[in-house]
Design brief:
The protein is 30% helix and 16% strand. The protein has 218 residues and is an alpha+beta fold. It has two domains: 28-117, Cyclin A, domain 1, CATH 1.10.472; 136-217, Roll (SH3 type barrels), CATH 2.30.30.50. Helix 1 runs parallel beside helix 4 (68-82) and helix 2 (48-56) crosses helix 4 (68-82).
Length: 218
Amino acid sequence: MNGPHDLGGRMGFGPIPLEVDEPIFHADWEARALGLTLTCGALGGWTLDESRHARESLPPAVYYGSSYYEIWERALERLLLRHALVTEDELASGQAAAGEPHPRRLPAARVPEVLASGGPTDRPISAAARFQPGDRVRARLMHPKTHTRMPGYLTGHFGVIEADRGGFVLPDTNAHGDGENPERLYTVIFAAAQVWGQGAEPGVTISADLWESYLDPA
């Protein structure tokens, strides 16, 4: 979707400050926000793609006015309410109502195991590849209102297939409860001049991993 998160190629947002020896967390609450997000995700109420979509669906003023982990927290609140895991009153008070713990709660002792297992999204796929390395393709001109991993700045531009990565869960459907629908994922190389025009730095290329349905033959 054309959300506030899709900032690739946009100007006017200022430089990105680089910190020397940047800490993992700038405050204790950031570590807690990460922990809450991972723990709540382990409850199984939503997918990684739905979680991403919850963040990118925040209103622009909220998104741009929030820090990285504030965005995570605000999206988590939406997900917990959407899946009836908390109530508005519980969020407002910061206290859980009386009741039984969630059956899929994640005990602290299992956190290292769950984190180590990760969340692989590669899937077997039997359909023949539509494209081969070296093929010239065009990123579809697409602006869906739903979730997509197609960067907006690449839509409509021409690139070359560098590699076939095999089958992966399609985020566009998985974010909305419409199934994993795995598709082939390709690494596509775009010349910066093709994307940015005459102002592009000479010799620079852009590498993007794009699903098969995002691409057309050139």
